[in-house]
C-alpha cells in the first residue's frame, strides 16, 4: 500500500509503525528486540542511508552512470524494429525530447527481476520540458496537491505563480508542495481509485509513457491512467512501502509502473516482497527512468536520502539562447487551452503547447525560476495503469 502523503508522514515512518508497536511488547527482552531488528533489513538499510552523522558509506550504492562490470545486470536493447514506428505527431514530439532509442543505455537488475533502468534518455530541452510541466502545469487545478488540505491557496491562485516571490510566504509555499496527483487521483486514505476522483490524464505524459513502453518491448500494453508527482528537498525522505492500489496488481506480472526523475539525486532502495529482504541501493539521477514490472512490482521501495547532483543535465546540451527572449506569455484564454488536462481538441492543443514551451525553454531568462527550483529539489513522476486492458471505467464509485 502507498504510504500517506509525504508531508503528513510522521517520523518514524508508517511502514515501520507495526515494528514499533511490536517492539513495545518486547521492550525488556533484548534478545527479541535484536531479532526484530535483524529481520527488518529494509528498515536497517533505510536508517543507515538516512543517517547524517556519521555519513554512510555510499560505495555500495549501484551507480548506473559508472558501471565498470555488468555483473548482476543484464544489458537491454531498444525494441526499435517491427512494431516500433513513429506513428503520429505526438510521438515525434516526445522523441524530440529524447536521444535516439538506439543509444539508450538500459539494464535489468538480475536479482530484482522486472526492475528496468534507463540511463537518462532525455536531452536538456527534454529535461526542462518535463520539469516545467511538473512545476507549472501539473500543479494546476483540477489536479490535486497535498497543500489543498492546508487551504493556503485561494481559489484563483495556482501554486507555481504564488510561490515566485522572495518573501517568506512564497518561500514557505514553495517548500510545502510535496505531491500532485493526476488522472485517477490516489486516495491516500482508502488506497482505492474511483471514478469519482478522476480527471483527464495529460496527453503528453501518456504519450511519453506509451513511447517508453514500446521501446522496452511492452508494445501498446501500457495505458497511463494515474500519476503521482513527488517533490523532494534535501531533507525529504519517502518511507518504504509497496504499491497496492492499482487493480492490475491482481495480475502483477502484467502490471508495470514507470518513474521518471529530474533534479537532485536520490538514493533509491528496492527490497523484496517482505521487509526481511535486504534492499539494493541505487542512485537515481536526473533524467533516469525506472520501470517496476514483474516480480519487482510487488517489492518494498523507498527513498532514504537526496544528495546533491554532480551535474546539471538540464543545462548541458548546446541550448542556444533565443536571439530575443521575447517569450510568449499566455492570455487567460490561452491558459484554458494550456490546461494540463486538455480537452478533445488534442492534436491542435498538444502541438501548440509543444512549440511554445520548447521555444521559451531555450531562453535562460524564462527558464531561470525553474532552474532555481530544480537546483535544490528532486521531482519524481510515477505513472500507473489502473484499469484492466479493454475496460473503460472502474465499477466502483469509491464511497
Ligand atoms: O520518488 C521515487 O523515486 C519513488 C516514489 C514512490 O515510490 C511513490 O510515490 O510511491
UniProtKB/TrEMBL annotation:
Its cofactor is Fe(2+). Binds 1 Fe(2+) ion per subunit. The lineage of its organism: Eukaryota, Metazoa, Ecdysozoa, Arthropoda, Hexapoda. GO terms for molecular function: broad specificity oxidative DNA demethylase activity; ferrous iron binding; oxidative RNA demethylase activity. This is Nucleic acid dioxygenase ALKBH1 isoform X1. GO terms for cellular component: cytoplasm; nucleus. PANTHER family: ALKYLATED DNA REPAIR PROTEIN ALKB-RELATED, NUCLEIC ACID DIOXYGENASE ALKBH1. GO terms for biological process: oxidative RNA demethylation.
Amino acid at each position: 500500500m502507498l504510504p500517506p502523503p509525504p508531508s503528513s508522514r510522521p517520523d518514524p515512518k508508517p511502514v515501520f509503525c507495526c515494528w514499533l508497536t511490536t517492539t513495545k511488547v518486547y521492550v525488556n527482552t533484548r534478545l527479541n528486540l535484536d531479532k526484530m531488528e535483524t529481520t527488518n533489513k529494509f528498515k536497517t538499510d533505510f536508517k543507515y542511508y538516512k543517517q547524517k552523522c556519521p555519513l554512510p558509506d555510499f560505495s555500495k550504492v549501484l551507480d548506473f552512470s559508472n558501471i565498470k562490470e555488468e555483473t548482476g545486470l543484464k544489458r537491454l536493447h531498444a525494441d526499435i524494429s517491427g512494431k516500433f514506428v513513429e506513428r503520429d505527431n505526438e510521438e515525434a514530439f516526445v522523441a524530440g525530447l529524447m536521444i535516439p532509442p538506439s543509444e539508450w543505455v538500459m539494464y535489468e537488475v538480475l536479482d530484482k527481476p522486472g526492475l528496468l533502468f534507463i540511463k537518462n534518455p532525455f536531452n536538456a530541452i527534454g529535461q526542462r520540458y518535463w520539469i516545467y510541466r511538473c512545476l507549472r502545469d501539473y500543479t494546476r487545478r483540477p489536479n490535486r496537491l497535498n497543500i489543498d488540505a492546508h487551504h493556503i491557496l485561494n481559489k484563483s491562485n495556482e501554486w507555481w505563480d504564488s510561490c515566485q516571490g522572495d518573501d517568506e510566504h512564497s518561500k514557505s509555499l514553495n517548500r510545502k508542495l510535496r505531491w500532485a496527483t493526476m488522472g485517477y487521483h490516489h486516495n491516500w486514505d482508502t488506497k482505492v481509485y474511483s471514478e469519482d476522483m478522476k480527471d483527464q490524464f495529460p496527453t503528453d505524459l501518456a504519450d511519453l509513457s506509451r513511447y517508453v513502453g514500446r521501446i522496452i518491448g511492452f508494445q501498446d500494453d501500457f495505458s497511463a491512467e494515474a500519476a503521482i508527482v513527488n517533490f523532494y528537498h534535501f531533507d525529504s525522505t519517502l518511507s518504504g512501502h509497496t504499491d497496492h492500489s492499482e487493480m492490475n496488481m491482481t495480475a502483477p506480472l502484467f502490471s508495470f509502473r514507470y518513474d521518471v526523475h529530474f533534479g537532485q539525486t536520490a538514493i533509491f532502495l528496492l527490497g523484496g516482497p517482505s521487509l526481511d529482504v535486504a534492499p539494493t541501493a541505487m542512485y537515481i539521477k536526473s533524467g533516469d527512468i525506472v520501470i517496476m514490472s514483474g516480480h519487482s512490482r510487488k517489492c518494498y521501495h523507498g527513498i532514504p536520502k537526496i544528495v546533491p547532483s554532480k551535474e546539471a543535465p538540464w543545462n548541458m546540451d548546446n541550448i542556444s539562447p533565443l536571439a530575443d527572449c521575447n517569450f510568449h506569455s499566455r492570455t487567460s484564454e490561452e491558459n484554458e487551452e494550456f490546461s494540463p488536462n486538455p480537452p478533445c481538441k488534442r492534436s491542435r492543443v498538444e502541438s501548440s503547447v509543444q512549440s511554445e514551451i520548447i521555444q521559451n525553454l531555450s531562453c535562460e531568462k524564462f527558464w531561470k525560476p525553474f532552474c532555481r527550483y530544480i537546483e535544490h529539489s528532486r521531482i519524481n513522476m510515477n505513472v500507473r495503469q489502473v484499469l484492466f486492458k479493454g475496460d473503460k471505467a472502474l465499477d466502483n464509485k469509491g464511497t
